[in-house]
């Protein structure tokens, strides 16, 4: 099995460097899981709070390996026709009408169920590509249970059977990344087929690096203060703890407002960027002893 | 013992702790380890985690077991040369010398050094030689008591304050560092016991249940905080699940009028059936909670969860009682802070107590007297409590009247079913009027709340 690993990553350390080159600072477990996903050709299921870089990881892998990203955004009511493939009915109808009376039914039949009339959706697209592909199945917890069944089939064999065309197997397995916010418990069967990675809030040093790399021009001192305050906020019992996305937003706000020192007043004035519930803001003001 | 045996034992231990590790996942782990090798312990651990642990809340259990089966080191961890050179292993000077080294390390926050010191602490001050077979010979408790962690914390906080930290910050960081050191000492003691007796012995005792399976009645203070943090995510998960299920059942009966109207366009053939939208059915809820000592945690958690899900219910009214009855609905404001609400609720307990001895009968009679109008044909009655009424009058008739006026009624009991009817518990007598269910942990509670909504 490890014969085809060359196209992804050759070791966890290499994964760290290559992801770092494209601007994704991965920690050890992220790098290891990414490496294993490529080496074992297994899908990775990434869970974690919103805004810690789940989707971003898939994009970073794509950039780092020069692959192409095929994205399937999941939502309630997603079905096979949107996820896998669909026949282009309108075009088929046109074809039948254009054929006129001269053509026999058999011919028309063979003709309208050919590649030309097939609309491939993300899953089938990813399977049929012969170049390196990263398949991102985003927010898989939003789908209905039936779609999970479909994913099971596709993700275990990487092949799809279309009755009119036969079975299509992948020539080159895509690297599959599934993300979930854990609003719903996924089935054991799906989890069993995946590697699992829980992305959590990073430690202070890593977060500072991330903020600095995402927001050029931010003063190191301010970044340090910002990360410290965010870390403190995460310790409070808030409805929505700030994640990396919020830290980065905050840093951008500080740049825009030309704040060069994160004093208590500055924190109090810009807290709305980080906390999205009014009760959370109240609690933070109280616990951090800010004056409003 | 070969590596494979250890691997299989580890998987067995994980299964024993409630992680659903399948055969194929075990094989994945072996393949992954074949790729990355056994040179780096953290990588081995992460590879195991990526292939075997599929739920974030199981990670703590996994970490605990991994430390037991693949320990960081083997042996005592104390420098053998120092011992040979005649440095006293234990004694007042040794203790003073060690404490000062530890204080320095804590102030510098050197994780690696602290880990070594933890091992040394257990080796020097945590040994309990000469205990009978079957008793553990290492104790983190003894070691930590000898080192007097309270003094250490005070010293550390003082040191940090001199280093320019504010008082509050120093206290917070100081306590956290000492707590982490205590954790390291406990882990090292476990490691030593596991080394002597085999990991499977200690795996059964040392691993705590995940927060979802934790008994409300046995929760420690830190557990309560963890539980409270769980409420909001749990409520969100439940709400999503409920909305999805409501959507799935949204279609009502066939709407004949609209079906006929739309069949006009297809020449009178009803191709598309039209359906009446289903009216969402919302339960009105009346909750009565016993908030006396032992069961108050359970009651407040249930209340918080129900109010976090308020959109799913039509109307919620909540009452607390010990031997008085007190309405607490007004404490729950939409969007209010959980911690504040909890504190206010605890404060409000005194309104619910007159003599301070739980009296279910009195509470039910008073409810019938003052709030009987709260229950109607649309409302569900939910009673939370252990049915321990200090041998007082049970007021069975009042309860029966309440159950009759409500549409549905349920009783949640946080005690293990085997303890029902023991002592002053009146579970059966009350249970004959209102169906009584066991509800000991978050999993059972969320299942019940889901069925209710």
From TrEMBL, chain A:
Task: List the SMART domains.
Answer: AAA
Q: Which domain of life is it from?
A: Bacteria
Return the protein name. Answer: MoxR family ATPase
The protein's matches in InterPro entries, at most eight in alphabetical order, are given as:
AAA+_ATPase, ATPase_dyneun-rel_AAA, CbbQ/NirQ/NorQ/GpvN, P-loop_NTPase
- Every copy of the AAA+ ATPase domain together lies at 40-205
Lineage of the species this protein comes from: Bacteria, Bacillati, Actinomycetota, Actinomycetes, Propionibacteriales
Write out the GO MF terms: ATP binding; ATP hydrolysis activity
Transmembrane stretches, start-end: none
UniProtKB/TrEMBL annotation, chain B:
Q: Name one Pfam family in it.
A: VWA_CoxE
InterPro entries registered for this protein in UniProt: UCP010256 (IPR011195), Uncharacterised_CoxE (IPR008912), vWFA_dom_sf (IPR036465)
Q: Which domain of life is it from?
A: Bacteria
Protein name as annotated: VWA domain-containing protein
Which SUPFAM superfamilies does this one have? vWA-like
């Amino acid at each position: 099995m490890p014969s085809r690993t060359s196209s992804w990553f050759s070791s966890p350390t290499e994964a760290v460097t290559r992801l770092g080159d494209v601007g994704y600072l991965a920690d050890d477990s992220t790098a290891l899981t990414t490496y294993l996903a490529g080496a074992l050709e297994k899908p990775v299921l990434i869970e974690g709070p919103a805004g810690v870089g789940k989707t971003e990881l898939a994009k970073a892998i794509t950039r780092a390996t020069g692959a192409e990203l095929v994205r399937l955004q999941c939502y309630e009511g997603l079905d096979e026709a949107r996820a896998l493939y669909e026949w282009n009915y309108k075009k088929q109808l046109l074809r039948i009408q254009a054929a006129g009376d001269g053509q026999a039914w058999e011919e028309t039949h063979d003709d309208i169920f050919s590649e030309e009339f097939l609309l491939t959706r993300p899953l089938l697209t990813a399977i049929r590509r012969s170049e390196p592909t990263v398949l991102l199945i985003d927010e898989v917890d939003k789908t209905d249970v039936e779609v999970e069944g479909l994913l099971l089939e596709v993700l275990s064999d990487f092949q799809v059977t279309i009755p009119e065309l036969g079975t299509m197997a992948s020539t080159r397995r895509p690297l599959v990344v599934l993300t979930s916010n854990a609003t719903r418990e996924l089935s054991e069967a799906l989890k069993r087929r995946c590697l699992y990675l829980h992305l959590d809030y990073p430690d202070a040093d890593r977060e500072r690096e991330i903020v600095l790399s995402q927001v050029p021009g931010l003063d190191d001192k301010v970044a340090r203060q910002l990360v410290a305050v965010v870390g403190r906020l995460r310790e409070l019992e808030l409805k929505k703890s700030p994640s990396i996305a919020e830290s980065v937003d905050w840093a951008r706000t500080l740049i825009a407002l030309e704040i060069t020192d994160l004093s208590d007043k500055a924190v109090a004035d810009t807290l709305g960027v980080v906390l999205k519930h009014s009760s959370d803001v109240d609690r933070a003001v109280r616990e951090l002893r800010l004056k409003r | 013992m070969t590596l494979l045996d250890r691997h299989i034992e580890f998987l067995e231990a994980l299964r024993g702790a409630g992680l659903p590790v399948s055969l194929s996942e075990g094989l994945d782990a072996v393949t992954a380890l074949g790729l990355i090798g056994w040179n780096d312990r953290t990588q081995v651990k992460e590879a195991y985690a990526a292939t075997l642990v599929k739920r974030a809340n199981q990670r703590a259990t996994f970490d605990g077991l991994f430390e037991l089966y693949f320990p960081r080191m083997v042996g005592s961890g104390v420098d053998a040369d120092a011992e040979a050179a005649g440095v006293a292993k234990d004694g007042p000077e040794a203790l003073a010398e060690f404490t000062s080294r530890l204080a320095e390390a804590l102030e510098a926050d050197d994780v690696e050094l602290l880990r070594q010191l933890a091992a040394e602490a257990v080796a020097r001050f945590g040994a309990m030689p000469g205990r009978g077979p079957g008793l553990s010979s290492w104790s983190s408790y003894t070691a930590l008591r000898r080192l007097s962690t309270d003094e250490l914390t005070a010293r550390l906080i003082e040191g940090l304050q001199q280093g320019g930290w504010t008082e509050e910050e120093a206290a917070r960081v100081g306590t956290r560092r000492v707590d982490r050191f205590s954790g390291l000492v406990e882990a090292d003691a476990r490691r030593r016991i596991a080394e002597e007796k085999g990991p499977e012995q200690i795996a059964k005792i040392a691993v705590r249940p995940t927060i979802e399976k934790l008994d409300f009645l046995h929760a420690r203070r830190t557990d309560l905080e963890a539980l409270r943090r769980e409420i909001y995510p749990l409520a969100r998960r439940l709400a999503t699940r409920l909305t999805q299920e409501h959507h799935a059942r949204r279609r009502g009966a066939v709407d004949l009028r609209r079906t006929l109207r739309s069949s006009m366009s297809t020449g009178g053939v009803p191709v598309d059936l039209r359906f009446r939208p289903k009216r969402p059915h919302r339960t009105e809820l009346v909750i009565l909670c016993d908030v006396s000592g032992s069961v108050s945690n359970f009651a407040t958690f249930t209340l918080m969860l129900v109010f976090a899900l308020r959109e799913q219910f039509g109307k919620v009214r909540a009452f607390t009682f010990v031997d008085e009855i007190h309405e607490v609905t007004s404490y729950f404001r939409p969007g209010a802070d959980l911690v504040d609400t909890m504190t206010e609720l605890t404060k409000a307990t005194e309104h619910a107590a007159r003599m301070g001895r739980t009296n279910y009968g009195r509470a039910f009679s008073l409810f019938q007297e003052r709030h009987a109008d709260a229950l109607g044909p649309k409302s569900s009655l939910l009673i939370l409590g252990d049915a321990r009424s200090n041998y007082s009058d049970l007021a069975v008739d009042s309860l029966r009247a309440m159950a009759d006026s409500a549409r549905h009624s349920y009783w949640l009991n946080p005690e293990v079913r085997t303890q029902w009817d023991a002592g002053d518990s009146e579970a059966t007598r009350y249970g004959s009027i209102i169906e009584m269910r066991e509800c000991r942990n978050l999993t059972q509670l969320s299942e019940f709340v889901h069925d209710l909504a």
